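User:
I would dearly like some help making sense of a protein record. Take your time, and here it is.
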Amino acid sequence: MERYTPNQIAGMLQVSTTTLRRYEEQDLVPTVPRTPSNHRYYGEVHAQAFTTIRVLLQGYDIPVAYEVMRSLKQGQAEQALWMMNEQQYQIHLEKKRVEDILAMIRHSDIPRTLNTEWKEPLNIGEAAALSGVKTSAIRH
């Protein structure tokens, strides 16, 4: 059985050992064994779990990624897949909503209405200035 130190796993994933401990505290990985001198060591299953968490966090909200990992840890793979599917569906709806808004903006008469030049594409600051809102609203 392959054994890894926290530093080795942290190095492989380019995270801190504190991050690994936080994942343990959040109950996202299998129980971590300790040496007789009370040092943590990880096996292959831990390396896979930590890698999975990092990959999930690239495409899913933190609460969803964490709940998926907890479900997987409890052997509820189907529930985990449904949670991931639901998040993908919500992302799809949001993408569609943004595309619809962009289509409305592109087909509007904003340049004539605001008596301004229109160039494509607008950066966020220009879109915010034209619409009279903060850049954070445009980003959201």
